[in-house]
Structures are given as structure tokens and as C-alpha cells.
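INFO batch 0412 | record 1 of 1 | parsing
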Amino acid sequence: MSEGRREQFIKRLSSVGMGTRESVHVLLGSIVYDVREQVVRKQFKDDEMDAVVTFHDQAEALWRDTLSTDPPLDIEQMVARLTKLRDVCTGPLGQYHAKLERGVRSAEEFRREHP
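INFO prediction complete | emitting C-alpha cells
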């Protein structure tokens, strides 16, 4: 990779908030993995499974979308989707509220710094 191409790539990554996106991506990956493990170990009740599966699928979709850099997921969409996930974290999903709150704050901070 030529030095000019390398610099262009690094500039693109820094302008889309790669550090923030990586942090959110890792956070979501840990949540997706944790939900899967808890389902396999039958740690959710049968009547909780609809909410758990919906939450998992939304978290997994956002997890995949945060990895994209060309084009990157719009920061407004990331904040909105993280907020939506955080807001459904009640009952058996309440354990993820604090983690997602950190993700929302991080994404909001990036949005403020890069209007």
C-alpha cells in the first residue's frame, strides 16, 4: 500500500469514528454472545423468549452494521438504534442496560465532536 493510500485510509477511518465504532462493535458483540449463551443454558423463561430473540436480532444487526466503514453506519442511526436497544433492557434484559448506556454516551460524544 503506498504511503498516500495509507494516509487516505487512516483519514477515512478517523473521520468515521473508528475508535468509537470499534468500542460499540465490541460491546454489541459481547452482548450478542452473552444472550446466545444464556439462551443455550436456559437462563431465560419461555415467556421471555420473544423479547429476548427480538433484542438479540436487533443487537446482532447493529453489531454487523457498526463494522462497515465504506460507507459507515450514519452516526445518527447508530445513536438511535443503540438508544432503542438500551430502552428495551428491562426485566431479563435489564442486565444490558448499563452497557448499552455507555455505548449511547460514547456515540453521542462522537456525534457532538464531529457535527
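INFO post-check: The longest helix spans residues 18-40.
INFO record closed
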